[in-house]
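Record 1 of the preview.
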Amino acid sequence: MPHRHAVPRTVNDVLLWLLATDVAAAHQPHPDQPRRCANLRCGGYLYPCPPARDAQRACQAATRPAPSTHGSARVPVPTARFAGWFRPARTQPDASPRAA
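->
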C-alpha cells in the first residue's frame, strides 16, 4: 500500500487518515462499469458508494487545518497564592512510647 508511506504534512489525525485511505483504495470504480463500485461488499452500488463517500469525508476531517490564532494571550502564573495548600490535615501522633 504505497499511500501508507506518504502521509501529508497537513494531516492532523494520522490514524483516521490511514483508515480513510485504506477504505478509499478498496472502493474504486469498476474498470468495465465506471459508474459502479468494484468492491464485492458493495454489491454494485453506484460509485461513489457510501463507504467511498465516508472515506472522503474522513480524509477531509483528518486533514482539517488547525485554527489559526489571532494574537497572543497572557496567562497569569500564580506564585504564592497556593502556598501551604498541601499541609497535613491533622498532626501525626508522637512516636514516643506512652507511660503505662
